[in-house]
Every structure is written in structure tokens, then in C-alpha cells.
């Protein structure tokens, strides 16, 4: 009985050690707790608050080819953003998140000067990681469409205007959550930057909503070590049981 317990406990210990080595689960998103108009300042589990950076004009050929400048041309860094999930929005936010905009007035029913101009709208959040290769996914919604960059590299490109899976099939009722795999994503050790660029093309209120989760990808060498350890334990148990059987039979 005691031998059996040892055999059961040791693999669990190895698994716990291996799990601890990979324990860098990252959860980021447009999380918020503040009501519309009070400013969006809450942070998520790993990330700083999603901040509005500013805007840039749409390129001349945006109807068929959206190309956003690297950084906004107007607006100052780290402006307040607003949680609009309790007010005039397109559709329910992704579970656990909030729609976030650059103004207290958002959603498909704005009017006149309340509506956002047709521009690119820039948002940014930062988060920390141990670094290395991670697996996971990101779910996004936007009005009208968005591009997501991780440490300056595009991981979600702009969709088609007016029929974009990042936001909706048929504007303006943004009802489709687009989930994109992030398997094999390389993160920096320390600070990482996630940027969302929202392309507003329909003369309405702009807004974004996202949620992402990442976990470290197991290293082959660590898996091999764990597997070798388990095989060794199984072989040891086999030999012990065989020896015990010989003693009993003699």
C-alpha cells in the first residue's frame, strides 16, 4: 500500500513542478468597472487600463485598403477612455469585458457632433510576462473594424468595411465576436504592448471590445524530462512487483 502511494504521489509532484514552471497565465482585455462618463481607469488581471492615444485621418483609398499610420497624429498620450457597456452600445460586450470608447457618447445612435469623425482611433494597454512562446486566443469586436498589434507586429488585420467578422455581418448591429488563435506567439520578458487601432468609416460612435488569454507553450525538453521520470517510476514499480511475486512464490 505504501509503495502504491509513493508511486501515485511522485508523478503528481512532478506534474506540479512542471505546472509551476509554466505558471504564467495571462488574461487581458477591455475590463472596466466605471459607469459611462466617469473615465475608464480599471486594470485587468495582468494589464494596465486600455487608454486612448489619439487619432489619424483615414487614407484616401480606405474603402478598399485600410492602412493606418504607425502612431496617431492628433491627441495626447494616455487620455481617458470610457466604459459604455451600460449605455448606448451596439450589442452585449464579450463576457467579463466592457465596450470602450474615446468619448462619453458612443454606440450606433449618436447624432450630429456627438458622432466620431471617420478616422483611425488608437488604444493601448501594456502587460507583463515571463517571456517566450505562448499559446491562446483573442476575441474582438469593433465599430467599424479594427487592427491589433502586439509589440508592433500585426496579429489581427483590419477586416472588410461594412461586412467585417471582427465586428458584425451587416452594420450597424455589431453582433459577431471574432476569435483568432494566437498559438506560437512570442512575448517579451517583462513589458509587452498591445495596441488596437479602430477604423471608423460610418460616421457613428467608434468603440472596441476585446478579451485575450495566453499560457506558456510547454518546452519539449521539459516534457521529455517529465515523461522520462514517469516511465522510470513505472519501470521501478514493475520490477518491485515482480520481485515481490518471486518471493511469494518461492
Architecture overview:
This protein is α+β, with helices and mostly antiparallel strands and 250 residues long. It has 2 domains: 47 residues; 191 residues, Jelly Rolls, CATH 2.60.120. Helices cover 20% and strands 30% of the residues. It is built from 2 helices and 12 strands, in the order H-E-E-E-E-E-E-E-E-E-E-E-E-H. The strands form 3 sheets. Strands 1, 6, 9, 10 and 12 form a 5-stranded antiparallel sheet that branches. Strands 2-5-11-7-8 form a 5-stranded antiparallel sheet, with no helix packed on it. Strand 7 and strand 8 form a beta hairpin. Helix 1 runs antiparallel to helix 2. About 16% of the residues have low confidence.
Give me a quick take on this structure:
This protein is of the alpha+beta class and 250 residues long. Helix content is 20%, strand content 30%.
List keywords for this structure.
250 residues, globular, 5-stranded antiparallel β-sheet, alpha+beta, Jelly Rolls, 2 domains
Topology of helices and strands:
Layout: H1 2-21, E1 26-29, E2 51-57, E3 82-83, E4 100-101, E5 119-129, E6 132-143, E7 145-150, E8 153-156, E9 178-181, E10 185-187, E11 190-199, E12 207-216, H2 220-249
Antiparallel strand pairs: 1-12, 2-5, 3-4, 5-11, 6-9, 6-10, 6-12, 7-8, 7-11
Helix pairs in contact: 1-2
Amino acid at each position: 500500500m505504501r509503495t502504491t502511494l509513493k508511486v501515485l504521489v511522485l508523478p503528481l509532484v512532478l506534474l506540479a513542478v512542471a505546472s509551476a514552471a509554466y505558471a504564467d497565465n495571462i488574461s487581458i482585455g477591455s475590463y472596466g468597472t466605471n459607469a459611462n462618463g466617469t473615465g475608464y481607469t480599471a486594470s485587468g488581471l495582468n494589464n494596465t487600463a486600455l487608454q486612448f492615444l489619439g487619432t489619424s485621418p483615414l487614407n484616401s483609398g480606405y474603402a478598399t485598403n485600410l492602412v493606418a499610420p504607425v502612431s496617431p497624429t492628433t491627441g495626447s498620450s494616455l487620455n481617458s477612455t470610457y466604459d459604455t457597456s451600460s449605455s448606448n452600445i451596439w450589442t452585449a460586450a464579450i463576457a467579463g469585458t466592457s465596450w470602450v470608447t474615446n468619448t462619453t457618447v458612443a454606440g450606433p445612435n449618436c447624432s450630429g457632433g456627438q458622432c466620431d469623425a471617420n478616422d483611425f482611433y488608437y488604444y493601448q494597454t501594456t502587460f507583463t510576462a515571463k517571456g517566450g512562446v505562448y499559446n491562446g486566443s483573442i476575441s474582438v469586436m469593433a465599430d467599424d473594424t479594427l487592427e491589433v498589434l502586439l509589440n508592433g507586429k500585426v496579429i489581427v488585420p483590419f477586416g472588410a468595411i461594412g461586412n467585417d467578422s471582427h465586428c458584425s455581418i451587416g452594420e450597424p448591429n455589431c453582433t459577431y465576436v471574432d476569435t483568432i488563435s494566437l498559438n506560437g506567439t512570442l512575448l517579451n520578458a517583462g513589458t509587452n504592448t498591445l495596441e488596437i487601432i479602430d477604423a471608423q468609416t460610418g460616421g457613428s460612435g467608434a468603440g472596441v471590445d476585446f478579451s485575450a488569454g495566453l499560457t506558456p507553450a510547454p518546452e519539449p525538453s521539459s516534457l521529455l524530462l517529465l515523461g522520462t521520470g514517469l516511465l522510470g517510476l513505472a519501470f521501478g514499480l514493475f520490477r518491485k512487483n515482480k520481485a515481490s511475486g518471486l518471493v511469494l512464490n518461492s
